[in-house]
Amino acid sequence: MPRRKSSVQEQASKVGRAPKKSVGRIDFIKQELPEIGSPPAGTVRGLIIRAHGLWYEVLLMAAGEEDRVVLATVRGQLKRLMRRTDIVAVGDYVHVTLLPESEAVIEFVEPRKGSLVRTARNTRDTDQVILANPDQVLFVFALHDPEPHLRMLDRFLILAELQHLPVELAIGKMDLEGDEPARSARTIFRDYERIYPVSYISVLTGAGVDDLGARLKGKMTVVAGPSGVGKSSLLNLLDPLNMRDVGVISAATGKGRHTTVGARLHRIGTRTFVGDTPGMRALAMHAVPPERLPFCYREFLPYLGECFYQDCTHIHEPDCAVRIALERGDIPLARYESYVALRTGDEMEPGER
């Protein structure tokens, strides 16, 4: 006998979208740190802006100490809490005991309001924190050189959606595409314009960069994307006082070389930080519960819970509200095919293999 329809709220509750509920990986996505009391007396508040193995650069934020950076290690009792996530990461607000010669000891880590994480390499249940406490994420892709892989973009978007992070998209190298870059770009990325803010920019001409900078003002933004798309060049334009190395594209593979070797926070204005992250060529999807995946495609949201079958996968079942919306043209075919490929485990485009 067919199962009854379920409401969006019921579906959401089953996959961890409802407040204070979680299933499997969702506990890690919240990135809540263990309770460790309160900051010890005499410590100074700071922000971790870079990690070097067991050492961390901390930008002090207390009155009289602004703009001073110290090199800090983690107190032993905090190290014992490091299990399935990073207890200290770039973007964390910490309290340190100052030592001579611009060194310090991290005594306390403030609770995170969120974080951008991914599954650590060669694991299925250990999180690697890319950046703690971001207000939003900026995914940078290029119109050309290297060619954009939209399935890779979809995986980046899923990473943000799982962690409830607002998304900005920046499409760079508009100057490399000939006479009609805007038309070409909007043809490629039009499906994303329907659901996300998209900025089309050129670092060479400066087109669109000021408007994008305004969208970053007053926020902590993690910047991510495949290598070689121009992230470092963009950050150099936004923050010319801290010039970064610029990578090149391999003529043989069309892939970029990493110029960022670890996450780093840069202050580019008052209360404005950007987190520069290493190029990520692949994001493992095995840690994403299949039942959560539909909620990571915003085009699906109006139709979830309206299918005839409560446990509809939106792939082959009859009377599927998502597939009906697809047939009407309300859901882009390419995005739906991306979902099916991810759900069935065949998510890579030929150019990414």
User: In which range does the helix fraction lie?
Assistant: 10-25%
Main β-sheet: number of strands, strand sense, barrel status?
6 strands, mixed
Give Rg in angstroms: 22 Å
Structure summary, number of beta strands: 13
| Shape-level CATH architecture of the largest domain | 3-Layer(aba) Sandwich
Rounded mean pLDDT is 79
| CATH homologous superfamily identity of the largest domain | P-loop containing nucleotide triphosphate hydrolases
List the helices and strands and how they pair.
Elements lengths: L7 H8 L10 H5 L13 E9 L2 E6 L8 E6 L1 H4 L13 E7 L3 E7 L5 E5 L7 E6 L3 E7 L7 H13 L4 E6 L8 H13 L4 E3 L8 H8 L3 E5 L6 H8 L25 E6 L2 E5 L44 H8 L4 H12 L9
Parallel strand pairs: 3-5, 8-9, 8-11, 9-10, 11-13
Antiparallel strand pairs: 1-2, 1-4, 2-3, 4-5, 6-7, 12-13
